[in-house]
Each structure stands twice: as structure tokens, then as C-alpha cells.
Amino acid sequence: MKDIRRKVRRTQTVSPFGVGGIIDLQGESFVAADIRSWGKHGEPVESPRLARKLGVRGFRAAPVIPSGKAQFVSRRGPGYVRFPRWIFCPKCRVMTLWRIEMEEKDKPPRCGRCPNTPQLAPMRFIQVCREGHMADVDWQRWAHSRATTHDQRQCRVKSLKFIATPESSGLDALKVACTTCDAYRTLEGISQKHALKQIGVRCSGSQPWQPAADERDECDEQPRVVQRGASNVYFPLVHSAIEIPTPLESEADGTTARRVMAHDLWGDLLEEGDSPLAEALVTLIAKKCEVSQKFVESLRRSHTVEDSTKTTTSTVIEDLSIAEWGAFVASEPETKSTKDFSIRQINLGVQEVDSDSLKLLRRRVDRVVVADRIREVRALEGFSRYESEGRERLISVNPVASTQWLPAVESYGEGIFISFAEEALQKWESPQTVQDWVESIEKNLEASFQVERLREKTGPRLLPRFVMLHTLAHQFIRQLSYDSGYNAASLRERVYARSNPVGSQIPRQAGIFIYTAAGDSEGTLGGLVRQGLPPHLKETMVRLLESAQWCSQDPLCADSTGRSLANLNRAACHACALLPETCCEIGNTLLDRTLLIGDDQVKGFFQPVLQAAFEESAAAVDAQ
């Protein structure tokens, strides 16, 4: 039997087609409903560290429908609603306002007027506002907004056509016309700021999937018309954490601890503190999970002590990177390898007989760690529209109630971690030329609408090491896509270079972690780990630095004083440094090749390595 069910991959239910996101499937357009549509379905995903950070009790992943059984399984998990509801026939151009009663199971909407019943197409334009609301454009009002006769002004019949004329290739060649009174208006100027305000349209204060019983928000924001597939329609806020074992945790204890923390009463136990009810909860959880009360109590105490050290939101945000950094750089790892986290420290593989350029590279690299196996959890907290303004206008995945759980996905993979010598970094960062260079990027960052989201990664101040290491991570991924067997879109980055508040005792970070992750337990193929072993890693690093010297768009790219949204990049473009969106944790911003390789204005961190390599190459040519 042919499977015609509309499908979404599990990872896509977090991003890019998570709650509030629009998805196009074979000519149809849908929007993901909030987590109320999940009901009680979903597979638990365990990530205690990430749950504490986000203030929820747990996570759920969308259930997977077994291959070949889609026709026999009732709908479970995330719900998707047809949007926009205004659709039209590509032949007769008649527009239809679609209703839920008109839906037929696993069948797209079709035109009953035309021969061969062609599939109806969704309108290209929708309206959104800064508060995150989204709705159909009121095409009835738009078509009659320039009515010239009394009958046209009084017409209330929703009988419209979406007409394309051959006069031009712009929006003025498209018009919405009323078939009853002949009123019409072209789409010219529909995207202008006050286009809807001029015809008296206000924000609906709702989302397309919300039922009539939901209370609408009183929204004073003026909606604007955007294209359905525009990049500013949906900004998901996704958090991720690499699951590291707790200190002195054995694999068996780790599995048991995760089972205890996944229990429905675990959140209640943490909230009770030392109240009399806590003892009863400990007893009940211990009985249900078949462990001792002492084990549950010790686990609760460890969480209570850890939580008591978190006094500010910024500390909570820092916590995940601090713990991950500590796990990677521990000289004698306090964390034991488990089935979800297995690492080993190696060296760069530079020998005394190697060239001077490789020796200079070794002085800048502090340690190399290969991760044979990691587990990453990514969770969707909410989304915004029109402008990514951090938490200020964040729409929750459950907008009508307190969120107890979030949609998430777990993935497994392998990776390479490299930390860099703190002394060498401080020596490179200290000159005023480097400080002034990054200060100009800092000013653009402060003026950007993305500042709140990016500060979660950079810390309170943008450090030169962050821009340099972030650019290095991008060049590393590009080079590994040639060497490791993984394509660039399969690799991800984590940059450890946050600045800390003044007076903070948090150790400074300076490292990158390049990893791959797949949605099942077969995510570790070994190709990435192999590239982290001697002698492959040193060769890969030399090649990536050499490739960073050149860009097909130079000198325009190299001399750039501002690229990307809000001018947050310098010498970085699609030809040399930008990556697929799935790779970068901060959206291809804060990149600059100059801080890697240097120029006549500012010295690059790896500039001496490259100079030595060029001299060696020249000497080799002369010797021939």
C-alpha cells in the first residue's frame, strides 16, 4: 500500500518545524501547533542539567511511526494545522477560505471546478507582528480597500480571485479581485510598514492553531505582511546540552540516577526541600524505581547543593558550558566514561623533527581530546517572529499554561575538542590594536536586535578570542567536510570562550568542540575521531589555516568593515567562512578571518605559524 502520509522527521519537530514553524510539504503549507496537541504522547528524554537550566520537569521527543506502518497508526505526537487558510486554484485562480470541516484524511485540497481537479495552492503572503502573532491576510478587506462605488464599499461576499497578469514581473502584476462587485487591488506596496494600518487591519492577537475558546491577546502592535517562507517569520529559541556524567559516577549508577530523575515525582521532591512531605516522596520514588532511599536522598542532596549556588540567571546560563569545559580539560578526569560520554586525551602529534611551523602550532594548542561517543539533547523553549528579540517577546510552546515539559530530541555522535594555551592567547589579545578591532564589532553587537541571544554565548563582553575561535571552528568544519567523510551540514560547533562578570571566580575558557550527531544510536561512525588522531589533526589544521588566507571574493571580503545582519561579521562570506545554519550556534555571526591570519593592521593568532609555513615552502622551492 502506498504511504501518502505527510511526514516530518523527529529532529525537525524541534527545529526548523517546531511549535510555530511553517512547513511546506508537496505544495501544501502547515504550521506546527503548540504542545497541547501532543496530548500525553511523546517519549521521555532525560537531561537533568538542561531541565534545571530551563526550569522544567523534563522533555519529550515526538514518537516515531514504524516504517511501513503509517497507514495503520493513528496520529500521535505534534499537531500541524493548515496555514494559510486562504488557498487558490492555479488554473481558475478562484480563492477559497479553507475550514477544518473541509479536510479529508491524507488528501490535499483540490479544486472542484476545473477538469482533473488540480491541487489548491496556499497564498504566498501572511501577516505577523512583533509580539509573535500570525494570521492570514484579510484579502476581502484588501480587495475592497480601494472601492470606487457604493456597491463595492458595501460588498461582504467572500468570493475572490487571485489574478496574475502579464504586464510586469513585479507585485503590481498580481491582484486580488472580488468576483461579485469587481473591486480589486494589486499587491504593489503590500509589504510596506503601514500597508495594513491604512486599510484598518489590526493584529488578531492569536496563532493559527488556537481554537475559538482560547482567549485572544489584546495586541497593539501593527501587523506587517511578509512572505510565508521569509526568514523573519520564525525564530526558534533552541537550547542544547552535551550530557556529561557527574563526578565519580559509574555507568550503572548513571543509568539508575537518570531513571530516578525521570520519575514523575522527582520535580515535586526538589520543590519540597526539607519539608515533611519530602521524606514520603523519597520513600515512594525509591520503591517505584527499585533503589534504596539512601540513593534517592543523596541524589536529591547533590541537586540541592548545586542549585543553591545559582543565584542569577547569568550563572544558570553559564553552568552548562562550565561543566562541559571541566569535563574536557580535566587532567585526571573525575568523570568516568559512560555509554553516553566517552573521551580520551591525546596529543597533537608534533615531533622534534617536525618543521618550525608545526612547533609554533603546538605552542598554541594546549590539549586535544577526542570524543568517541557523546549524547546531545536539544530542546525548544519557544519562538519569536519578525525580529529575534531574545526573551522579551518569546512565545512559549504552551502559551496558555505553565510549561512543565518541552519538546526535545536526543542525538548521538563523536567529536574533536581542542583547547588553546591561555598564556599565548593573553599575549595575543593584549595589544591595543586587537582590542580596538574587536571593539568595533562589539559596538555593532550592542546595536543589534540579536544582542540578548548572542550575549548568552559571548558573555557580558565580546572577547577577541571568541571571534577568533568561532572563525577557527567554521574553518575547521569546512576542512573536515573534505577529510572526514561527513558533509558540513552534519557537523556542529561549540565555542568555549565566554567572558565572565567582573570578580567572577569561574575559570577562563578557550577552546572549540566540533562534533557530529545523528538522531539514533548509530551516530558514531569513527571518521571524525580518526581526523583527531596524529598525524591527521596537525595536517588538517595547517590546511585550514592556509585556506583561510584566500577567498574568491577578496579583496572585498578581506577589507570588509561590516557584513551580515547588523554588520556582525568582518572578513567572512559564503565563499570562505559561512556554514549551513545547522552547524553554527549563533547564526553565522561574529566571524572574522583577519583575527586568524592577520593583516597589516592587526596581528592574527596563527600569523606566525603561517609565516613560518610560507618560508619553509619557499626554501623547499629554492632547494629544487
Structure write-up:
It is built from 17 helices and 21 strands. It starts with 21 loop residues before the first strand and ends with a helix. Helix 1 runs antiparallel to helix 8, helix 6 packs across helix 7 and helix 13 crosses helix 15. The protein is 29% helix and 19% strand. It has helices at 48-54, 139-143, 150-154, 251-261, 266-272, 276-289, 293-308, 313-329, 356-364, 422-429, 432-446, 451-458, 464-483, 527-531, 536-548, 594-597, 607-623, and strands spanning 22-25, 28-32, 43-45, 58-61, 80-82, 86-88, 95-97, 121-122, 125-128, 134-136, 160-164, 174-178, 184-186, 224-227, 235-242, 342-346, 365-384, 395-396, 405-420, 491-496, 511-518. The chain is an alpha+beta fold and 624 residues long. Residues 248-252 and 305-318 have low confidence and may be disordered. Strands 3, 4, 15, 16, 17, 18, 19, 20 and 21 form a nine-stranded mixed sheet that branches. A three-stranded antiparallel sheet has the order 1-2-5, with no helix packed on it. The protein has a three-stranded antiparallel sheet with strand order 7-6-8, with no helix packed on it. The chain is globular and about 90 Å long. A hairpin with a 5-residue loop joins strand 9 (125-128) and strand 10.
